[in-house]
Amino acid sequence: MISKLLPLAVAGWLAAPVFAAESARTLTTFKKQHLENFYWSEGAAFGDLNGDGKPDAIYGPYWFEGPDFTKRHEIYAPTKTTTVKENDGTSRTFAGWHGGMGNANAYSNDNFFTFVYDFDGDGWPDVLTYGLPHTPAYLYLNPRGFDTHWARHTVLDEVDNESPTFLDLTGDGRPEIVCVNGGNFGYASPDWKNPTAKWTFTPISAGGTWQRYTHGLGVGDMNGDGRLDVLFKDGWFEQPASLAGNPPWKLHKFFFAPGGAQMFAYDVNGDGRTDVITSLAAHGFGFAWYEQLAERGADGDLTFKPHIFLNNEPRENRYGVAFSEIHAVELVDIDGDGLKDIVTGKCFWAHGPPGTNIAAPDAGAPAVLYWFKLTRLPGGGVDWVPHLIDDHSGVGRQIGLGDVNGDGRTDLIIGNKKGAFVFTNEARRVTPAEWERAQPKVLFPDAEKNALTARDVVTHTARPGDAAKATKATAPKSGIGGAAPVPNSK
Q1: Is the pTM of this model over 0.85?
Q2: Cα 485 from Cα 489, distance rounded (Å)
Q3: How far apart are the first and last CA of the chain?
Q4: Each residue of 446-468: pLDDT tens digit?
Q5: b or e along 442-474 (b: 16 or more beta carbons within 10 Å of the residue's beta carbon)?
Q6: Residue 469 carries which DSSP code?
Q7: What's the pLDDT tens digit per position in 319-363?
Q8: Counting Cβ atoms within 10 Å, is residue 22 exposed (0-12), middle (13-18) or buried (19+)?
Q9: Which of 55, 219, 245, 332 is the most buried (most CB within 10 A)?
């Protein structure tokens, strides 16, 4: 009403910024670049290996010069080849392992995860890799600009767990390998004066009962004491006030997942308490965040409320999105709004193509890659809004993060059985109508009411002997029917 009393020119000048703000919307999209077709690794990473100030891409035996990633160099010799027999009896040979080029289940045994760090302090970033669980960690020293193969050093004889990581767990300012070794959770660190020698593994658990293929691992401050703890599918290990003497870390049991991937400790709903984010079954379906409650349990421990927002069927999910094999996850602010979002997708042929005896459910579905935007709702609620990045790449066991063009936005690199891909994060200004069309639609608003529990999520397709095992497990014992209840079942 006031604007009607002003001259038109002045009114237009005042209204222009309002109109511009209302008409300009930013849409997050990704530009895809396929770096390599052959299967060399289940992970990939970014790092400035040649010292030109631009991130390079690392995948398996190769690194690709940034920012265009068209010039390729070898870290080590790519000698592996695979020969397959076709249905017509002919044979075909290609580079690398089976993967998408093959027709059977196989793994890039010596390379699943890639990390970049200057280990010897010479100013040139080096490369650390882990392979299939129970294989070594290798340190490749940067040849300082010479185009030759990198010297390889075995620094840990076995790295176990399906989602080992590399970060500063202890707070000493330098990263450690966080994994399972010898059946125990713990961390491995070098003698920094001689980082190519064997690293020392420090267990934080006792008993040695965790097998090599244990799924789910993460690091974060669970109780707000300023120290990083270790999460896994069945609880978390609390870092003690002092690490002197290598004391065991207190185990807090809580069932988070049957068998997930990377796990994260993050305040999802903004209430000041640390929540847990995890996939539920790396070879099945399911994704959840666990809300830490203000109330403590009878034993004084932290308690959590599960919110499962990706279930088995589209109708069980708010946006109708469902996919299996969630074997790699990252938590990062994709759209620059200050909140961390989930990046994940379908691990292409995590247990091989359809028809193999341990193939995951829905193994033949498109290899999708998504980011889920964290949206905090009035009243403390949360929505994870799915945005499809791609449907012909998926994930492996690791998602690499970086900023390939210096625009401040997080870009992605994927390594898996389809090869290697870079996804450059782009902000595009669009009209309100274009922005609205791009927003996912809520198809099942009451889906969470029908969500499964974490224990109900399918972890594998049926295998020979499963029916007999199930019958035996649920058979009445001593006149009492049914199976015993499971503690911490939610």
Answers
A1: yes
A2: 8
A3: 56
A4: 887 777 778 876 654 444 444 44
A5: eebeebeeebbebeebbbbbeeeeeeeeeeeee
A6: H
A7: 999 999 999 999 999 999 999 999 999 999 999 999 877 888 889
A8: exposed
A9: 55
